[in-house]
Amino acid sequence: MKATTKLALIGIGSFIIYNEIQKRNDNPKVFYVNRIPGGFNGCILPPFGILINESQRDNKILIEHEKVHWQQYQREGLLPFLANYWAEHFKHGYDLNPYEIEARLKSGEIPCCLHNYTECVRNGLSLTVHNPNFRH
Q1: Number of other CB atoms surrounding residue 72 within 10 Å
Q2: 3 vs 7, 11, 16, 33, CA distance in Å?
Q3: Which of 4, 40, 90, 115 is 20 to 30 Å apart from 109, CA to CA?
Q4: For the segment 45-101, what is each residue's pLDDT rounded down to a tens digit?
Q5: What are the residue boundaries of the structural domains of the chain, listed by start?
Q6: Mean pLDDT of the chain
Q7: Could you tell me if 48 and 29 are in contact, meaning their C-beta atoms sit under 8 angstroms apart?
Q8: Is the dihedral angle over the CA atoms 78, 44, 65, 26 positive or is it negative?
Q9: Residue 79 contacts by C-beta under 8 Å, 6 or more apart in sequence?
């Protein structure tokens, strides 16, 4: 077996082990970044942790929202979570994605924002964040 093949197998094996450890981690690392693609203020990057826009560092509800997504990843596993989340996103859109609704509900978002989140964010009603240019 070639050395590059061995290294690749070691890397894949290490990732699988790391992923299994992180699936049991109820306190994922939070990384504060200057920009998240898509105009979002937070997202998870399983199995590595949670990304939060630096401007939202003190936004506890947003962090709780992302922790619910982390719990979804823990519940389903990496590939099933990613496949299911995106299937629901393409089927229902962002606002009506059941994964997003669960995260909004469990993080304490106000009820009127559960199913019409984009407008709540644009109008300043959302507890997670206010952004008049959200998802334009």
Answers
A1: 20
A2: 6, 12, 20, 36
A3: 90
A4: 999 999 999 999 999 999 999 999 999 999 999 999 999 999 999 999 999 999 999
A5: 3-123
A6: 93
A7: yes
A8: positive
A9: none
Helices (H), the chain: 3-23, 60-76, 78-92, 98-107, 117-123
Across the range 98-105, mean pLDDT stands at: 97
Band of pLDDT at residue 2, cut at 50, 70 and 90: confident
Enter the DSSP assignment of 135.
T
DSSP structural state of residue 24:
T
For the chain, first and last CA: distance in Å? 51
Distance (Å) of CA 36 to CA 11, 21, 41, 47, 55? 27, 25, 7, 17, 11
Q: Which pLDDT does position 136 carry in this prediction?
A: 66
pTM of the predicted structure, to 2 decimals? 0.91
